[in-house]
Amino acid sequence: MKPRSGKRLEEKTVVVTKGTLLDRSFQPLQDVQRARRKHIPQLAHGLNEVLQREGVHWLRDPQTQKYNFPEYLETIPRVEDFAFDRLPEFTPSSRDQDFVASVKRAGCRFAGSTSSLTGILTQIYLLLSEEKSLNISDLSEEFVKAPRFFTPGQRIPSSVILRYQNGIYTTDYDGERDSSDPEEIILLPLGTLLEKFLTLSKDEFGGFLKSNTSGQYPKLQDVHRYAKYGKFLMRSQLDCYDKTLPGTGVFDLKTRAISAIRHDVHNYLNYINYKIESLTGREDSFESEYYDMIRSAFLEYSFQARIGNMDGVLVAYHNTARIFGFQYISLREMDRCLFGREDAGDRVFIRCVALMELLYEHITRCFPSQSVKVTFEKRSTVVRAWVEPLEVDGGEPPVVELQLHLQNIMHGRAAKGSYAIYADYPWAVQYRIERNVEDQATILRNRDRAYKRQLTIAKSLPTTREGPELEETFGVSDPAHSQSTVIVDEGTV
Q: Among residues 152, 137, 135, 422, which one has the least CA distance to residue 294?
């Protein structure tokens, strides 16, 4: 039946811009400020041995009971005994004046640090790859039937604040919906403590304990890499350096609590007697922790390492009271698990950065020359970005919903995300950004659902949840939203 004259379906979105990023348009990051290697920390206690051989290095051999590293490292100092005020304070991008000055000198408009950008890059990757299955073929037979998709924690919506400062936008993490009390976030200060524990001698580390009242302790300084892509400048803190590693010799330090703690963080004290018993197996093993990292952390680790031009990460496995062992994981190894082959990650990463820059261009046009709050979420076949002014004069702030759609192109035709990620052929990306033109009530309802999912995931739900309930809550198998669009001039927001 034909619709009555004058009647037409109401459009839900309008196309803001569309185009194609050609394979040749993607370029590597450029160093804007070369880091001074002499100021980058180095491993202490003979831990550089871990960098030379793949696999897990027990701190204490479970068979011989002999220590492979100093016994001193086994017992983790208590967070409450550490004087954090003696360390350089973390400075968000917007308050880092040296960084802001570098953004201007580099001719960039957008900036951010790894802590604020990796969540956005993750949402874009999930869309670009169509949530490609992970590769766990290197694990033992006990993992043959294990899930190969990312955990809900990897899909958590990412919220940031774009702070406007004289023509540039710096990106800060938005913790407005963080509901954790100090006990629940024990892993954050503990990670900082352990970084110093592993890179300082016993005497140097002792200077940072509250029991040291002499006022004498090493004066440390953070070292950063500033990396440029197009109009974007990214800041990465450089944790550690070893001259024997390839490339820059820089790598990241990661302290990894056992899964039982990470899935029940606020009750971490209940698990201080839990320990890793074996190298392999589904329970209480290094392999089970490694498997969990593939699903819940490798993507973030790989993005952080590439922003910092690092070779990989050194992981210290612990239960908040005791360290069990160490493992060095190169970017090549992470690429194999994430993308199916080594060295695939550079192509993936640079496309995600280019698409993030594209999104920023249109997000900042929503409310020109104003600071804005933005929440990103990949859901179904789109990444949505909800944008609202940080400050308004009375009343509720208006909210704009942008939607990013992607299509991978190889051999001149559409390609599935899994193929594009794995293959080594010229790879273009077609994009389309739309603006939701439904009423504010609908847009707010969409955003508030994302907020609810953000809060739900953040409450340390076990990441082994599977099945229909997972799909309904986190969108693992979410039916596509119906779309009705009309194209308008490019650049209109």
A: 135
pLDDT (tens digit per residue) in 360-371: 999 999 999 999
- Over pLDDT 70: what percentage of the chain? 89
From CA 396, how far away is CA 125, in angstroms rounded? 32
Number of neighbours of residue 26 by Cβ within 10 angstroms: 18
- CA 8 to chain CA mean position, Å: 43
Instruction: Say if residues 113 and 163 touch (Cβ distance below 8 Å).
Output: no
What pLDDT is attached to residue 180?
A: 55
Q: Which residues of 421-438 are buried (b: 16+ CB within 10 A; e: fewer)?
A: bebeeebbbebbbbbbbe
3-class DSSP state of 190: helix
pTM summary value:
0.91
φ, ψ at 306 (rounded to 5°): -75, -35
The pLDDT tens digits for 273-288 are: 999 999 999 999 999 9
Residue 432 has, within 13 A of its CA and on its CB side, a CA count of: 16
In this structure, are residues 212 and 220 in contact, taking their beta carbons and an 8 Å threshold? no
pLDDT score recorded for residue 36: 81
How far is CA 420 from each of CA 132, 400, 408, 433, rounded to the nearest angstrom? 10, 31, 7, 21
Integer angstrom CA distances of residue 465 from 135, 143, 476: 19, 16, 11
Check: CB of residue 334 under 8 Å from CB of residue 302: yes
Q: For residue 184, what pLDDT is reported?
A: 52
Q: Which tokens is 47 given?
A: 């831990």
Nearest to 320, CA basis, from 263, 255, 376: 255
